[in-house]
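Table S4 entry, PPR3E phosphatase.
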Amino acid sequence: PPPLLEPLFPPQPGASPGFAERVRQHKVRLEWVRAEPAGLRGAVRVLNLAYEKAVSVRYTLNRWASCAEVPAAYQPAGPADGLTDRFAFLLPLGAAAAAAEATLEFAVRYRVAGAEYWDNNEGANYRLRGRQRVPPAA
């Protein structure tokens, strides 16, 4: 079986107490992530500061020797709070992340009204470690 990515942070920050307040304070926060065969899927919440906004996820598999960035897509059926918007992303990791010892790091960027805000897990980046799946015992 292929290795799986194991988050080194709580994978559902949006379910923790005070999440809405953290979005208000910091303007952007990771809501959840899930490792899938296609890559790492997740959602981001941003404070709705203006109609036009851009959300992206910058990531690396080699400790920032190189990196890539993917745009996140606006989710129209988002939160009903009227204050925040939800964006979804998929990091297409492929074979590079399949190494059992791979470490994925990422941060979220939110650009709106001439300003830029980041969610980098309080300066530690969001990190996931590749871990070999243990086949079920026969």
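Helices lie at 19-26.
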